[in-house]
Amino acid sequence: MNGPGIDYEAVFQALPGGVALLTPGLVYADVNEAFLSMSGRTREQVVGRYLFDVFPDNPDDPSATGVRNLRASLERVLATGAPDSMALQRYDVESPDRPGQWQERYWSPVNAPVLAPDGSVALLLHRVEEVTELIQARGGGGAGERAQVLESELYTRAKELQAVNERLRRAHAHEREVALHLQEAMLPAPHPLGHHHAAVRYRPATGALNVCGDWYDLVELPGRTAVAVGDVVGHGLRAAGVMGLLRSALSAASRVADGPARALEVLDLYSRDVPGAESTTAVSVVIDWTNRVLTYSSAGHPPPVLCHPDGTVEFLDRATDPPLGALPEHAPRPQARVSFTDGTVLAVYTDGLVERRREDIDTSLTRLADALTRHRAVPPESLADILLAELTPPTGITDDTALVLLRL
After folding, report:
1. Predicted pLDDT at 147
2. Backbone φ and ψ of 214, nearest 5°
3. What torsion do the CA atoms of 276, 269, 287, 190 make, to the nearest 10 degrees?
4. Residue 68 carries which DSSP code?
5. Which tens digit of pLDDT belongs to each residue from 197-215?
6. Where would you tag: which of 31, 75, 133, 197 has the fewest CB atoms within 10 A of its CB?
7. CA torsion angle 285 382 208 57 (round to 10)
8. Minimal CA–CA distance to 103: which of 34, 20, 40?
Protein backbone atom coordinates (compact mmCIF):
# COMPACT_ATOMS: atom_id res chain seq x y z
CA MET A 1 0.00 0.00 0.00
CA ASN A 2 1.21 3.51 -0.79
CA GLY A 3 0.34 6.57 1.27
CA PRO A 4 -2.32 6.51 4.01
CA GLY A 5 -3.90 3.16 3.16
CA ILE A 6 -4.23 3.82 -0.59
CA ASP A 7 -2.93 1.33 -3.16
CA TYR A 8 -2.02 3.70 -5.99
CA GLU A 9 -1.09 0.83 -8.31
CA ALA A 10 -4.63 -0.49 -7.97
CA VAL A 11 -6.02 3.01 -8.54
CA PHE A 12 -3.91 3.39 -11.68
CA GLN A 13 -5.13 0.09 -13.09
CA ALA A 14 -8.78 0.88 -12.23
CA LEU A 15 -8.87 4.27 -13.96
CA PRO A 16 -11.71 4.19 -16.53
CA GLY A 17 -9.69 6.12 -19.13
CA GLY A 18 -6.63 4.90 -20.94
CA VAL A 19 -3.41 6.06 -19.24
CA ALA A 20 0.22 5.30 -20.03
CA LEU A 21 3.40 6.31 -18.24
CA LEU A 22 6.36 7.06 -20.50
CA THR A 23 10.01 7.63 -19.67
CA PRO A 24 11.64 10.86 -20.93
CA GLY A 25 13.01 8.69 -23.75
CA LEU A 26 9.39 7.89 -24.76
CA VAL A 27 9.55 4.25 -23.66
CA TYR A 28 6.46 2.76 -22.01
CA ALA A 29 7.07 2.37 -18.27
CA ASP A 30 3.54 1.20 -17.45
CA VAL A 31 0.01 1.23 -18.86
CA ASN A 32 -3.36 0.61 -17.28
CA GLU A 33 -5.94 -1.97 -18.29
CA ALA A 34 -8.14 0.58 -20.08
CA PHE A 35 -5.22 1.60 -22.29
CA LEU A 36 -4.54 -2.03 -23.24
CA SER A 37 -8.21 -2.62 -23.95
CA MET A 38 -8.48 0.43 -26.21
CA SER A 39 -5.30 -0.29 -28.12
CA GLY A 40 -5.87 -4.03 -28.48
CA ARG A 41 -2.39 -4.79 -27.19
CA THR A 42 -1.05 -6.96 -24.40
CA ARG A 43 1.18 -5.63 -21.63
CA GLU A 44 4.13 -7.55 -23.08
CA GLN A 45 3.64 -5.85 -26.45
CA VAL A 46 3.78 -2.38 -24.89
CA VAL A 47 5.75 -2.03 -21.63
CA GLY A 48 9.47 -1.52 -22.15
CA ARG A 49 9.12 -0.61 -25.82
CA TYR A 50 9.53 2.70 -27.64
CA LEU A 51 6.22 4.49 -28.14
CA PHE A 52 6.45 4.92 -31.89
CA ASP A 53 7.66 1.36 -32.45
CA VAL A 54 4.44 0.17 -30.85
CA PHE A 55 2.22 2.75 -32.56
CA PRO A 56 3.79 4.03 -35.81
CA ASP A 57 2.00 6.02 -38.47
CA ASN A 58 0.19 4.13 -41.22
CA PRO A 59 2.92 3.76 -43.88
CA ASP A 60 0.27 3.72 -46.61
CA ASP A 61 -1.15 7.12 -45.57
CA PRO A 62 1.17 9.97 -46.67
CA SER A 63 -1.04 12.50 -44.86
CA ALA A 64 -0.72 10.79 -41.47
CA THR A 65 0.41 13.24 -38.75
CA GLY A 66 -0.27 11.28 -35.56
CA VAL A 67 3.37 10.52 -34.72
CA ARG A 68 4.57 14.05 -35.48
CA ASN A 69 1.84 15.71 -33.42
CA LEU A 70 2.16 13.39 -30.43
CA ARG A 71 5.95 13.64 -30.37
CA ALA A 72 5.77 17.45 -30.49
CA SER A 73 3.33 17.51 -27.56
CA LEU A 74 5.42 15.17 -25.42
CA GLU A 75 8.59 17.14 -26.16
CA ARG A 76 6.82 20.34 -25.07
CA VAL A 77 5.91 18.73 -21.76
CA LEU A 78 9.52 17.61 -21.29
CA ALA A 79 10.84 21.08 -22.10
CA THR A 80 8.36 23.11 -20.05
CA GLY A 81 7.30 20.79 -17.24
CA ALA A 82 3.69 21.82 -17.97
CA PRO A 83 0.70 19.76 -19.22
CA ASP A 84 -0.25 19.90 -22.90
CA SER A 85 -3.77 19.20 -24.20
CA MET A 86 -3.84 18.13 -27.82
CA ALA A 87 -6.53 18.77 -30.39
CA LEU A 88 -8.63 15.84 -31.62
CA GLN A 89 -6.27 13.51 -33.51
CA ARG A 90 -6.73 10.91 -36.19
CA TYR A 91 -4.14 8.28 -35.35
CA ASP A 92 -4.75 4.97 -37.11
CA VAL A 93 -3.72 1.74 -35.36
CA GLU A 94 -2.56 -1.47 -36.95
CA SER A 95 -4.93 -4.36 -36.30
CA PRO A 96 -3.43 -6.70 -33.69
CA ASP A 97 -5.02 -9.70 -35.44
CA ARG A 98 -4.32 -8.71 -39.06
CA PRO A 99 -0.82 -7.27 -39.58
CA GLY A 100 -0.75 -4.70 -42.36
CA GLN A 101 -4.40 -3.82 -41.85
CA TRP A 102 -4.95 -0.37 -40.35
CA GLN A 103 -8.00 0.73 -38.38
CA GLU A 104 -9.21 4.32 -38.63
CA ARG A 105 -9.13 5.66 -35.06
CA TYR A 106 -9.73 9.08 -33.43
CA TRP A 107 -8.35 10.19 -30.07
CA SER A 108 -8.43 13.07 -27.59
CA PRO A 109 -5.04 13.05 -25.81
CA VAL A 110 -3.65 14.99 -22.83
CA ASN A 111 -0.01 14.78 -21.77
CA ALA A 112 1.26 15.82 -18.34
CA PRO A 113 4.56 15.70 -16.43
CA VAL A 114 5.25 13.59 -13.36
CA LEU A 115 7.89 15.59 -11.49
CA ALA A 116 10.78 14.27 -9.42
CA PRO A 117 11.59 15.91 -6.05
CA ASP A 118 14.23 18.10 -7.74
CA GLY A 119 11.66 19.48 -10.20
CA SER A 120 12.83 17.49 -13.22
CA VAL A 121 10.38 15.52 -15.38
CA ALA A 122 10.67 11.92 -14.20
CA LEU A 123 7.82 10.48 -16.28
CA LEU A 124 5.26 11.57 -18.85
CA LEU A 125 1.62 10.74 -18.19
CA HIS A 126 -0.20 10.15 -21.49
CA ARG A 127 -3.97 10.06 -21.02
CA VAL A 128 -6.07 9.31 -24.07
CA GLU A 129 -9.81 9.04 -24.67
CA GLU A 130 -10.99 7.32 -27.83
CA VAL A 131 -13.75 9.13 -29.74
CA THR A 132 -13.83 6.94 -32.84
CA GLU A 133 -17.41 5.80 -32.27
CA LEU A 134 -18.60 9.37 -31.91
CA ILE A 135 -16.82 10.48 -35.07
CA GLN A 136 -17.92 7.46 -37.09
CA ALA A 137 -21.46 7.31 -35.70
CA ARG A 138 -23.88 6.17 -38.39
CA GLY A 139 -27.64 5.95 -38.44
CA GLY A 140 -30.38 5.56 -40.99
CA GLY A 141 -31.57 8.24 -43.42
CA GLY A 142 -31.22 11.79 -42.18
CA ALA A 143 -29.56 10.70 -38.94
CA GLY A 144 -26.74 9.11 -40.95
CA GLU A 145 -26.28 12.27 -42.96
CA ARG A 146 -26.18 14.36 -39.79
CA ALA A 147 -23.57 12.00 -38.34
CA GLN A 148 -21.43 12.39 -41.46
CA VAL A 149 -21.68 16.16 -41.15
CA LEU A 150 -20.75 15.95 -37.44
CA GLU A 151 -17.72 13.79 -38.27
CA SER A 152 -16.55 16.22 -40.91
CA GLU A 153 -17.12 19.27 -38.72
CA LEU A 154 -15.38 17.87 -35.64
CA TYR A 155 -12.35 16.64 -37.50
CA THR A 156 -12.06 19.79 -39.61
CA ARG A 157 -12.29 22.04 -36.52
CA ALA A 158 -9.67 19.93 -34.73
CA LYS A 159 -7.27 20.24 -37.66
CA GLU A 160 -7.89 23.99 -37.83
CA LEU A 161 -7.24 24.35 -34.08
CA GLN A 162 -4.04 22.37 -34.40
CA ALA A 163 -2.85 24.59 -37.27
CA VAL A 164 -3.70 27.75 -35.31
CA ASN A 165 -1.81 26.49 -32.26
CA GLU A 166 1.21 25.70 -34.39
CA ARG A 167 1.16 29.20 -35.94
CA LEU A 168 0.92 30.70 -32.44
CA ARG A 169 3.91 28.67 -31.28
CA ARG A 170 5.93 29.83 -34.28
CA ALA A 171 4.90 33.45 -33.65
CA HIS A 172 5.86 33.18 -29.98
CA ALA A 173 9.20 31.66 -30.92
CA HIS A 174 9.84 34.53 -33.36
CA GLU A 175 8.90 37.16 -30.78
CA ARG A 176 11.16 35.46 -28.25
CA GLU A 177 14.09 35.56 -30.68
CA VAL A 178 13.54 39.23 -31.53
CA ALA A 179 13.16 40.17 -27.86
CA LEU A 180 16.37 38.35 -26.97
CA HIS A 181 18.30 40.17 -29.70
CA LEU A 182 16.92 43.49 -28.45
CA GLN A 183 17.73 42.58 -24.85
CA GLU A 184 21.31 41.63 -25.67
CA ALA A 185 21.82 44.78 -27.74
CA MET A 186 20.77 47.00 -24.82
CA LEU A 187 22.81 45.28 -22.13
CA PRO A 188 26.32 46.71 -21.72
CA ALA A 189 29.22 44.64 -23.00
CA PRO A 190 31.60 43.38 -20.27
CA HIS A 191 34.55 45.71 -19.78
CA PRO A 192 37.58 45.81 -17.45
CA LEU A 193 37.23 47.52 -14.06
CA GLY A 194 40.82 48.54 -13.61
CA HIS A 195 42.61 45.73 -11.78
CA HIS A 196 39.34 44.43 -10.26
CA HIS A 197 38.02 41.09 -11.48
CA ALA A 198 34.37 41.02 -12.56
CA ALA A 199 32.07 38.70 -14.51
CA VAL A 200 28.56 39.29 -15.88
CA ARG A 201 26.02 36.80 -17.19
CA TYR A 202 22.56 37.02 -18.73
CA ARG A 203 20.62 33.80 -19.34
CA PRO A 204 17.08 33.75 -20.77
CA ALA A 205 14.46 31.33 -19.53
CA THR A 206 14.74 27.96 -21.24
CA GLY A 207 12.21 27.34 -23.99
CA ALA A 208 9.75 29.97 -22.75
CA LEU A 209 8.47 33.39 -23.73
CA ASN A 210 9.12 34.52 -20.16
CA VAL A 211 12.32 36.26 -21.26
CA CYS A 212 13.69 39.78 -21.20
CA GLY A 213 13.28 42.40 -18.54
CA ASP A 214 16.34 41.54 -16.43
CA TRP A 215 19.35 43.83 -16.60
CA TYR A 216 22.73 44.54 -15.11
CA ASP A 217 24.98 47.60 -15.22
CA LEU A 218 28.43 48.60 -14.00
CA VAL A 219 29.31 52.31 -13.83
CA GLU A 220 32.87 53.51 -13.24
CA LEU A 221 33.10 56.57 -10.96
CA PRO A 222 36.16 58.28 -9.44
CA GLY A 223 37.42 55.77 -6.87
CA ARG A 224 34.11 53.92 -6.94
CA THR A 225 32.05 51.47 -9.00
CA ALA A 226 28.25 51.37 -9.05
CA VAL A 227 26.77 47.92 -9.69
CA ALA A 228 23.07 47.62 -10.47
CA VAL A 229 20.73 44.75 -11.28
CA GLY A 230 17.01 44.98 -12.02
CA ASP A 231 13.99 42.95 -13.08
CA VAL A 232 11.01 44.29 -15.05
CA VAL A 233 7.66 42.55 -14.55
CA GLY A 234 6.46 41.02 -17.81
CA HIS A 235 8.19 39.45 -20.76
CA GLY A 236 8.91 39.74 -24.45
CA LEU A 237 9.49 42.84 -26.54
CA ARG A 238 7.67 45.21 -24.21
CA ALA A 239 9.68 44.11 -21.17
CA ALA A 240 12.91 44.43 -23.16
CA GLY A 241 11.99 47.99 -24.13
CA VAL A 242 11.11 48.96 -20.56
CA MET A 243 14.32 47.34 -19.36
CA GLY A 244 16.37 49.48 -21.73
CA LEU A 245 14.74 52.68 -20.50
CA LEU A 246 15.16 51.87 -16.80
CA ARG A 247 18.72 50.59 -17.12
CA SER A 248 19.76 53.77 -18.92
CA ALA A 249 17.96 55.98 -16.41
CA LEU A 250 19.55 54.27 -13.39
CA SER A 251 22.96 54.33 -15.06
CA ALA A 252 22.67 58.09 -15.57
CA ALA A 253 21.32 58.69 -12.05
CA SER A 254 24.18 56.68 -10.52
CA ARG A 255 26.68 59.06 -12.10
CA VAL A 256 25.30 62.14 -10.36
CA ALA A 257 23.28 60.96 -7.35
CA ASP A 258 24.59 61.12 -3.80
CA GLY A 259 24.53 57.38 -3.14
CA PRO A 260 22.48 54.39 -4.35
CA ALA A 261 19.33 55.28 -2.39
CA ARG A 262 19.10 58.65 -4.10
CA ALA A 263 19.70 57.00 -7.48
CA LEU A 264 16.78 54.62 -6.87
CA GLU A 265 14.58 57.53 -5.79
CA VAL A 266 15.29 59.23 -9.12
CA LEU A 267 14.59 55.97 -10.95
CA ASP A 268 11.31 55.61 -9.06
CA LEU A 269 10.16 59.05 -10.22
CA TYR A 270 11.19 58.31 -13.79
CA SER A 271 9.46 54.92 -13.81
CA ARG A 272 6.07 56.49 -13.06
CA ASP A 273 6.03 57.88 -16.60
CA VAL A 274 7.05 54.59 -18.22
CA PRO A 275 4.11 52.24 -18.94
CA GLY A 276 5.01 48.71 -17.87
CA ALA A 277 7.63 49.83 -15.34
CA GLU A 278 5.41 49.42 -12.30
CA SER A 279 6.53 46.83 -9.75
CA THR A 280 10.04 46.64 -11.23
CA THR A 281 12.64 45.58 -8.68
CA ALA A 282 16.19 46.92 -8.63
CA VAL A 283 19.22 47.04 -6.39
CA SER A 284 22.22 49.38 -6.51
CA VAL A 285 25.57 48.77 -4.79
CA VAL A 286 28.33 51.39 -4.77
CA ILE A 287 31.82 50.08 -4.06
CA ASP A 288 34.22 52.55 -2.45
CA TRP A 289 37.59 51.06 -3.29
CA THR A 290 39.58 53.50 -1.18
CA ASN A 291 37.70 53.06 2.10
CA ARG A 292 36.75 49.40 1.49
CA VAL A 293 33.05 50.12 2.02
CA LEU A 294 29.91 49.04 0.15
CA THR A 295 26.84 51.28 0.18
CA TYR A 296 23.62 49.71 -1.05
CA SER A 297 19.89 50.19 -1.45
CA SER A 298 17.20 47.85 -2.76
CA ALA A 299 13.77 48.39 -4.30
CA GLY A 300 12.13 45.05 -3.56
CA HIS A 301 15.02 43.06 -5.06
CA PRO A 302 16.65 39.83 -3.77
CA PRO A 303 19.57 40.75 -1.50
CA PRO A 304 23.12 40.89 -2.88
CA VAL A 305 25.56 38.52 -1.20
CA LEU A 306 29.04 39.01 0.20
CA CYS A 307 31.21 35.93 0.63
CA HIS A 308 34.20 36.85 2.81
CA PRO A 309 37.60 35.18 2.41
CA ASP A 310 36.98 32.95 5.44
CA GLY A 311 33.77 31.59 3.86
CA THR A 312 31.36 33.68 5.94
CA VAL A 313 28.34 34.74 3.90
CA GLU A 314 26.52 38.02 4.47
CA PHE A 315 23.24 38.99 2.77
CA LEU A 316 22.87 42.73 2.15
CA ASP A 317 19.27 43.00 3.34
CA ARG A 318 19.29 45.98 5.73
CA ALA A 319 18.14 48.57 3.17
CA THR A 320 15.16 47.10 1.34
CA ASP A 321 11.99 48.95 0.36
CA PRO A 322 9.08 48.06 -1.98
CA PRO A 323 9.52 47.92 -5.79
CA LEU A 324 9.34 50.96 -8.07
CA GLY A 325 6.08 52.86 -7.97
CA ALA A 326 4.91 51.29 -4.70
CA LEU A 327 5.88 54.24 -2.48
CA PRO A 328 4.46 57.78 -2.47
CA GLU A 329 6.27 60.16 -4.81
CA HIS A 330 9.53 61.58 -3.43
CA ALA A 331 9.53 59.08 -0.55
CA PRO A 332 13.13 58.53 0.67
CA ARG A 333 14.61 55.06 0.29
CA PRO A 334 16.88 53.40 2.88
CA GLN A 335 20.60 52.95 2.47
CA ALA A 336 23.10 50.81 4.38
CA ARG A 337 26.87 50.39 4.51
CA VAL A 338 29.12 47.40 5.07
CA SER A 339 32.91 47.08 5.05
CA PHE A 340 34.85 44.46 3.13
CA THR A 341 38.37 43.08 2.89
CA ASP A 342 40.46 42.10 -0.10
CA GLY A 343 39.35 38.81 -1.62
CA THR A 344 35.67 39.18 -0.71
CA VAL A 345 33.26 38.10 -3.46
CA LEU A 346 30.17 40.20 -4.24
CA ALA A 347 27.23 38.55 -6.06
CA VAL A 348 24.34 40.67 -7.38
CA TYR A 349 21.63 38.76 -9.25
CA THR A 350 17.97 38.53 -10.27
CA ASP A 351 15.48 36.08 -8.81
CA GLY A 352 15.80 33.65 -11.73
CA LEU A 353 19.08 32.48 -10.23
CA VAL A 354 17.58 31.32 -6.95
CA GLU A 355 13.78 31.04 -6.96
CA ARG A 356 12.19 27.63 -7.55
CA ARG A 357 8.57 26.58 -7.78
CA ARG A 358 7.17 25.28 -4.49
CA GLU A 359 10.37 26.13 -2.62
CA ASP A 360 10.82 28.57 0.25
CA ILE A 361 13.08 31.49 -0.70
CA ASP A 362 15.27 30.89 2.37
CA THR A 363 16.10 27.43 1.02
CA SER A 364 17.05 28.95 -2.33
CA LEU A 365 19.27 31.61 -0.73
CA THR A 366 20.96 28.97 1.43
CA ARG A 367 21.81 27.03 -1.73
CA LEU A 368 23.40 30.16 -3.23
CA ALA A 369 25.37 30.85 -0.05
CA ASP A 370 26.65 27.28 0.09
CA ALA A 371 27.81 27.39 -3.55
CA LEU A 372 29.62 30.70 -3.00
CA THR A 373 31.35 29.37 0.11
CA ARG A 374 32.58 26.22 -1.58
CA HIS A 375 33.86 27.99 -4.70
CA ARG A 376 34.89 31.37 -3.27
CA ALA A 377 38.52 31.00 -4.39
CA VAL A 378 37.56 30.44 -8.05
CA PRO A 379 38.09 33.42 -10.44
CA PRO A 380 34.85 35.34 -11.16
CA GLU A 381 34.48 34.17 -14.79
CA SER A 382 34.66 30.52 -13.78
CA LEU A 383 32.62 31.13 -10.63
CA ALA A 384 29.78 32.63 -12.68
CA ASP A 385 29.60 29.50 -14.82
CA ILE A 386 29.75 27.25 -11.75
CA LEU A 387 26.89 29.08 -10.03
CA LEU A 388 24.69 28.88 -13.12
CA ALA A 389 25.45 25.17 -13.50
CA GLU A 390 24.81 24.32 -9.84
CA LEU A 391 21.77 26.50 -9.27
CA THR A 392 19.90 25.80 -12.51
CA PRO A 393 17.26 23.07 -12.02
CA PRO A 394 17.31 20.01 -14.34
CA THR A 395 14.34 21.37 -16.28
CA GLY A 396 16.31 24.53 -17.13
CA ILE A 397 16.05 28.18 -16.12
CA THR A 398 12.36 29.04 -15.74
CA ASP A 399 12.89 32.80 -15.45
CA ASP A 400 15.37 35.30 -16.82
CA THR A 401 18.65 35.40 -14.90
CA ALA A 402 21.16 38.23 -14.63
CA LEU A 403 24.30 37.85 -12.52
CA VAL A 404 27.22 40.13 -11.66
CA LEU A 405 30.21 38.80 -9.72
CA LEU A 406 33.15 40.87 -8.44
CA ARG A 407 36.18 39.93 -6.42
CA LEU A 408 36.71 42.97 -4.21
Report:
1. 53
2. -90, 145
3. 40
4. H
5. 789 988 877 655 555 688 8
6. 133
7. 180
8. 40
